[in-house]
Fold these 3 entries.
Entry 1:
Amino acid sequence: MIKLLDRYIFKEILSPFLLGVLLLTFLLLLNQILTLTEWVIDKGISILTVADLFVRMLPSFFLLTIPMAIAFATILAFNRLSFDHELIALSVSGIRVSRVLRPVFMFSVMVVFLTLLMGNLSAHWGTSSLKSTAIRMLKEKIGVGLEAGRFTEIFPGLMIYAESITDATKMDRVFIYDRRSPQHPPHVIVARSGFLMNNVGVVGLELQNGAVYTHNNLTNQRISFASYSLKVRLPLPQSPASVDGKNVQDWEKQQIAVQKKYSLAYASFLFCFLGVPLGMISGKGGRLGPFVAGILLILLYYALYNVGDYFFPPNGGASAMASWVPNMVLTPITILLFIFYTDETAFARILRKCQRGKEG
């Protein structure tokens, strides 16, 4: 009976949890899906590259949707158990309310580890793999976007014209107008031939047999070259050990991301237990009650998160504490509600009131 009860309540939470993760992730990804589709259709980026980027984006979205999904799942599960009088039946059968909470604790531990896993994957893919995928997309965009006989702005301030293009990489009779740097005057590059570079962390062109023309202080300058590399360097991720004083802000951002990961994992644990009393309370609201309670809980959490950002701004020394403000507020609320609604005497009294309210 006990093992059967564990499986029953576990399944009651698992089904809405999985559905909630899929639905909430889809809603958050909807705008990105439209953007990625536009890249394939309009920009010519390969489907495999876009699919790779899409997969690498998922952990960062799961990190947000898992806590929201577990909040809805536990509220829905205990709302149904309360609404269908199953909790009353268990109480009459001699099963204490605290016994019903064991599968909730098991599920909360599983969700905490899942949230931490998504946080680690998001941190890794968001720095190294995701940037390497972005570099590959830029190279594909250049190769696909260049058209023979037309001026193409492959980067802001960098205009390229090639009379002929072969294999999407090799160009003949190249004209380039470069005005990317505000500290230096614009210059024109003319070359007999060129090809796209394919180095790690670098996107650019390798030009042969040409000249660079610059107009500065009413003087014209011409520099001939046999080989010239036009590079656009992209920042590669740094390990914490390589961060120096010039990158203190980047290091602070990393610390904020770490604290956010742990705070969301704790929020997942908190929502598991907060959903129990909220599900019982929302039972009086019928089938719509848990949805209203879940939405209000999520809105309250992110409102408190914004309050944390206000009191602990990103440029402050304690900015990493901002993500913990909602947890610090909701933890005592959860403890009070949880103790009150799982107390055996109070529990029976509340259920009787709910039952009389439905019959009345």
Note: Residues 166 and 183 are 35 Å apart (CA to CA).
Entry 2:
Amino acid sequence: MAPRVVSPKEAKELADQVNRALPSSILFYRYGDRTTQIIRFLIENDMDVAKTVVAIKQTALFRKYWHADEITIADVKNAFEEWQCYPTGVTKDGRMVWYVDCFMTKPPKMEDFMLVTIYMVDDIQKRLYEACKALGIQEAYKDYCIIVSDTARTSMSAFNTEMKKAGMDVFVRHFPAFMSSTDIEVNENPAYAPSYDYDHSSFYNLNTPFLLRSIWKLCTLFMPARWAYMVQLLGSDTLPASIPSSCIPKKYGGSFEGSFEAWMQDCASVNGCSLDDPPRQLVDQRVLDQFGQNNGMIATEIPDQVISGWMWKRTNVGHRWHHYYFVLLKDGLLYYFKDVNDTDAQNGFMLENYLKREGIASLTIASNVLHFTNPPLLAAGQSEATRGAEQKGEAHKYWFIVRTPSRDYVFACNSVEQRSQWMFFLNKVIGEANKKAELVL
């Protein structure tokens, strides 16, 4: 499919409209050029000014909650124990080359993973901006980092669902166009067409285990089509000639002589800290709660509940219906669990700036939407535990959507009364959460 090409002039004009709609003091990035950063948000939001304004406000809240502008290398040094990375240079087309030696054997703590990825991409943006300014070139608007990673010593058990969710938050929503999922291109040539091949990818994973390469082929079926071309999982340590030799570490045949230790020391100097400083506790528990870290409390015993109960949730891929126990808290957090006695939530949502809509007509029910194999409504005297054998069911009727900047979440209830009750309290909590969010911004 041909890309949608937008000229730099048009992109900057749209960025100016977005900028005028934002508070002048809003903090949605740490380093770099404001116009360039806004254009990146525009690219991932269909060049739509209104959508982009909402997305930037979401990122400003995200950065505020994670104390993104306060993170120092001392705060995240422990997270680098099994994941060492550093910049190796900038290409002529304004892209940073970043090397990662990954030898994780176990999943990292979510707090560490989030803080270290925020810090890493902020550092990439800082060094890319400064290098391109010194060279007198425009930094790339999208796909602005070429990552070269080596996972020869990485264990598959180190990757989990929480990491996937956290990674999507950082690399897709809050650092848009880092590896773009859209076909929008900013270029002076209206006939410009990007190259999707081995020499023009964004992610080169060296010494990839065979199992990971096999799994990736399946994963690409559920990801943006563009990503399948931008990621190269290689079984060897040979890199394309399109990456300058000066940006390739010596161990892979290049001439770059830097090191992880040198980068750490430079970061400490920039941050005004010492690598001997202890990591600080920057993040509030409420933020960690998004990832199901609810202090080990049983679902039914979590304090400050507004409403709780069973609802159905439709998956984003495959449109399958799953039954979960939901808990809505006063401070604007919505959990869901597999069982009322669970202590680990499957997921959590912070409800700031969420828009909700109701009505069957507001969603197109296509033929590939599966009917659930059990009827939504429980028979008299029947409980969740005694539902019985599976049987052919009917489509859900009493559903609604919680709309977020990144996607729509579709929920269904067993009755119109139950739906009305959930929507009443969601409206109330979302309204209060939005007021608090405006104060933060």
Note: The longest strand covers residues 305-314.
Entry 3:
Amino acid sequence: MAPNNQNTKSNKKKAQKEPSAQELWETFPEALRRAIQENSMTQFDEAVKNVFTETPEILRKQCIQAGFLNEGTGNFSTLEDIKSQDMLSHFETNSALLEQLSELQGSTEPFLTEHPHMAAEHTVNWLTIAALSSAIDKNEEKLAALSEKCVVFQLFLASATGQKQFFKKFEVSENLDEVKAFKSRMRSRAQAKGEKPEKINLNQGTVDSRQFLEELKQLENLKKTEFAVQNYNKLVIRGDRMVKEFLIENPELLTEEAIKYLRILADTYSKDLNAKKCTDVSKKLTYILHFLTKKMTVAEYFVDLLAADSVKEYNDIWLVELRKMKQMMVDYKKARNPE
């Protein structure tokens, strides 16, 4: 009996080590990804031969297990195809539970205790589109309930704590703010879709996976934009001494998109004839404009900024920006008080 037990344990370990489709895809070189996307067995074999010369059969087996290669037909599926198939399978298998969850009143903790497998990314996706449908219908009560459930599931999946600990910690202002932000994104997207937007039918067997995934992509882009705008505003109110640390911690702000947003902000402050805020914006705008002329990291940039030549470059850019904002304020003032 002992050897059998050991074999069972060994098989379990092997099963646990099998990579997911996402993990496997991330290991693939570009040539292999292209072969799968173009559904070319010839390119696939060539890529395997060139890159995975030692273990081609292992790789082929992993591709079959992960769903990239259909052994019977010889056809390939992309990562998006696999995700789409998994998502639709989750919807179909759990359609009754998803509907039950959407109508659930109060805490979702008992529901998760009874159905732990529902704590999944696909459940979050379903709830997100259900919330968007509520926003389109202007059903604020259902939007509020679905938004909270969606944020609960998102945070729960990202949390390393146990279920009981998580639900005790959820009712804090930061998490409730995220619920408000989520509702705001749903309303914004519903408005962007027009007066008579096309909704996604969430009933069993009628989900258009491509439309569904495209809508999720649009909502994710909206979330990223919203997050970026929050950080742009945080940057503007930072004092001069805190700008360096803030930009080192948030290097993603040093982009052309940030420049566009700060210019819009500068225009708004110019209309209000608020010289102090225009000056604050111009300083932060100059950091980004100056940084983008350099080929270095943020930390290296701030070291470089200690040099006299770099300081002169910064000041030259800043003076140009200040003159622009001063001229905008003059123009807006004239427009208000024409002679």
Note: The radius of gyration is 27 Å.
